[in-house]
Each structure stands twice: as C-alpha cells, then as structure tokens.
Automatic annotation (TrEMBL):
N-acetyltransferase domain ranges (all copies): 10-161
Membrane-spanning residues: none
Protein name: GNAT family acetyltransferase
InterPro entries assigned: Acyl_CoA_acyltransferase, GNAT_dom, N-acetyltransferase
Length: 170
C-alpha cells in the first residue's frame, strides 16, 4: 500500500486493482451520484493518476476517494466522493485541506480548482471550508440534465498566494 498522505482520521493512498469493487459499490448509491448523474461512474479512478483511496483509520474501511489531479501547469482539480455513511463527519473537508496543504507546500501547485452543481450546497460548503472561494457560475449544455441543472455549475478556486495569506505565510 503506497500512502500518499495521512490526516488525523484518514489515510489517502494510491489505488490498487483490488479497489475496483469498492469504487463500483460507491457508485451504486444513487445519493452519491445525485449531483453527478448515473453516467458518472468512477471505476476508472483506480487506474488514473491524481486519485486516492480514502481509508478511515479507526475502522480501516474504504470511505471513498479524493481527486487532486493536474490540469495545467501548476493547476490541479480537487474532487471527492464519499460513501454516504461518511457524510457529515468532516472527512471531505479534512482530506481536501490535507491535499491542498501538501500541494502548495510540496507539490509545486499554484492554483486549486473545484467544480460542482450550483445546487450542491454540501459540496460547496466543503470547498469553502477548505479555503476555496467562489469564482463563477456557468451553464453547460447537458444532453440529459439533472434536476437543478438550470441553476448551472459553479467553479471555486484557491491560489497559492491566497493559501499562504490564509496560513500567515509570506
């Protein structure tokens, strides 16, 4: 098991082929995919760079996954998908903050971006708690729009300079 980083309550590690069934099970919950749609299966995250399995330390259970994937030079996309029983316990915020801190202090990251549906208040709150700020609302032309799509999607972002200011660094 290759650990990427640890938080107080989570281990974020690289995926292994044995994780495919866990990710598939996560995607079977319609509430997990509520703001993503049934076509948003994440099985391929097991094979992609920038995705990490989240393991709850106390139980050793697979809690979900985090994305911290390079987009452009110095820019990464933050994402997360957790099993429903781990919602509302601060795990998404904890994992997001840890990835952001590592990215800015060790990874050469200059900007973190995240996206969600405008109506996904839970995910938006995680982004805000992790230090990201609202950038814009935009509208995609989805072939089969989800309920709430008429309100658009939102982008949040955090620059390295803003992160440094938030943490009292030069």
């Amino acid at each position: 098991m290759r650990v990427h980083l640890e938080t107080e309550r989570l281990i974020l590690r690289h995926f292994t082929p044995a994780d495919v069934d866990l990710v598939t099970d996560l995607d079977r919950d319609p509430e997990v995919l509520r703001y993503l749609g049934a076509d948003a299966a994440s099985r391929d995250v097991v094979e992609r760079d920038g995705f990490f399995a989240a393991i709850e330390k106390a139980s050793g259970e697979f809690a979900g996954w985090f994305e911290f994937r390079p987009l452009d030079e110095g820019e990464v996309e933050l994402g997360y998908r957790l099993r429903r029983r781990f919602w509302g316990r601060g795990y998404a915020t904890e994992g997001a903050r840890a990835l952001i801190a590592k990215g800015f202090t060790e990874g050469g990251v200059r900007r973190v971006v995240a996206f969600t549906m405008s109506v996904n208040t839970g995910s938006r709150r995680v982004m805000e708690k992790a230090g990201l700020r609202y950038v814009r609302t935009f509208h995609e032309d989805w072939p089969d729009p989800l309920p709430g799509a008429e309100h658009g999607d939102v982008e949040y972002a955090l620059s390295e300079d803003d992160w440094n200011r938030q943490h009292g660094l030069p």
